[in-house]
Write a structure and sequence with these properties.
- Keywords: Membrane, Transmembrane, Transmembrane helix.
- By secondary structure, the protein is mainly α.
- Helices cover about 75% and strands about 0% of the residues.
- It has helices spanning about 5-10, 10-35, 40-45, 55-60, 75-90, 90-120, 125-150, 160-170, 175, 180-220, 225-230, 235-255, 260-280.
Length: about 280
């Protein structure tokens, strides 16, 4: 399938993704204006702050009653991953689309508000720009992973019909169309999908934190909102820049089938060659 044909086959998905992105940007800007007023000059009075840096929002000043430690949302993320993984078996396309659209909308909502605040002078500092560029890169990379989840590079022959087979014949119908090796492939594929879901949820929490904490910091609140306490752990930009690409690459390799192909066909010969070198020399 050529590049043009691929684009045409995903035309509806592209339009929907663009819609959620634009909607998020617009709503983010509107929400930012509603929460912060018309201009920095009118907000530059007791009870409001301007020129907030990225670090100021991530690390509130001592006067703010913030939690001393970040509250872990790992159990919630794991529960969401398990539920999504179970549903994925029966509604593969719906889960992938839903995760992609919600992630795009959440990031766009934050990006719209952040761009608006930078333009109006409420936010200042290069880290905001870095965070925006990082989120943009994540969205682009996540699109590639989603495409691989829909149409893996290396997949069993009947994988594209798996959702239809399971919905029509149930899990027992799998054995008619797939062999045991195909099931091993699917387990790695599902692991990659769940890893992708994990990264998407983390990025949703990253965006959510700054949506809530940014407005809170601007209003000089003394009690940190519950939602920002819950999502603070995922607001570490440096960790996200380091670990999110690694997780996305792993998700890509697993969902595309490349990792399975290497594990089944390439790794045994490489291990054998290594053992021969160790035992008998070069």
């Amino acid at each position: 399938m050529s590049f043009i044909e691929t684009i045409q086959s995903k035309e509806v998905d592209i339009y929907i993704s663009a819609f959620f992105t634009i909607l998020g940007l617009i709503l983010g800007a509107i929400l930012d204006r509603v929460l912060k007023g018309d201009s920095p000059q009118s907000a530059n009075q007791p009870g409001h702050s301007v020129n907030l840096t990225f670090n100021t929002v991530v690390n509130p000043p001592p006067g703010v009653n913030a939690a001393s430690t970040s509250q872990d949302m790992t159990p919630v993320i794991c529960m969401m991953m398990v539920i999504a993984g179970l549903i994925y078996v029966f509604f593969r396309a719906e889960i992938l689309n839903l995760i992609s659209w919600i992630t795009l909308f959440t990031i766009s909502l934050w990006a719209g508000g952040t761009l608006h605040s930078l333009y109006r002078g409420f936010f200042a500092g290069i880290k905001w720009v870095v965070a925006l560029l990082f989120c943009l890169a994540f969205c682009v990379a996540a699109t590639y992973v989603t495409d691989e989840a829909f149409m893996p590079t290396l997949a069993p022959q009947n994988f594209q019909y798996s959702q239809q087979i399971i919905n029509e014949q149930g899990l027992t119908g799998i054995k008619k169309y797939f062999v045991l090796l195909d099931m091993h492939w699917f387990l790695l594929h599902l692991t990659g999908v769940m890893l992708f879901i994990y990264t998407s949820i983390r990025m949703m929490f990253f965006s959510t934190y700054f949506i809530v904490a940014g407005a809170h910091a601007n209003n000089n609140g003394t009690h940190e909102p519950w939602l920002s306490r819950k999502t603070r752990k995922y607001a570490n930009l440096r960790k996200n820049i380091i670990f999110m690409p690694i997780l996305l690459v792993l998700a890509y390799l697993l969902t595309s089938g490349l990792a399975f192909d290497w594990f089944i066909h390439t790794m045994p010969s490489q291990v054998n060659a290594l053992m021969n070198t160790v035992l008998y020399g070069r």
